[in-house]
Amino acid sequence: MIYTHCFHSPLGDMIACATEQGLCLLEFVGSKRIEREQQDLQRLLKQRLMAGKNRHLEQAEAELREYFAGERRQFNVPLHTPSTPFQAIVWTALQQVQYGETISYQEQAERIGKPSAVRAVANANGQNRVSIIIPCHRVIGADGSLTGYGGGLQRKQWLLEHEGGKKPNSGGLFDAANL
Known about the structure:
By secondary structure, the protein is an alpha/beta fold. The protein has six helices and six strands; from the N terminus they run βββαβααβααβα.
């Protein structure tokens, strides 16, 4: 069974899914990707979705609450992220990017030993189903610009400011009515 649960964050409501093995999805409610990602998970894991919670969802929600409060820099919730071998390498490398650090797609490609695979790395980042915990928001353009983020560039900027020690202010920006 893939359990699914929604909860509130400073960046808007989030939806999380987890199996008995670990967290497999964390997205912002309203994302156009959620339905496809949930269908992919059901197909890949050969399990169906059901509203409810398990220990991994409870742990993820608690750790995210601590993260948003500035009390957590590293996540410990187990993950269950079905992927291609290349995606697994890219997502593992993402988890090595430290809190408050940013890297470019080129740097990420170099870190995995595939310096000419920048576009493939960017594509694999875009397939990440576990927002924030697998921190694709920490990858920026080579010129330092904010580039693609499934949750939107405003959320990416907020997350980077939060991790950089600034006090980001959403000012209601992430309320459902404004998305």
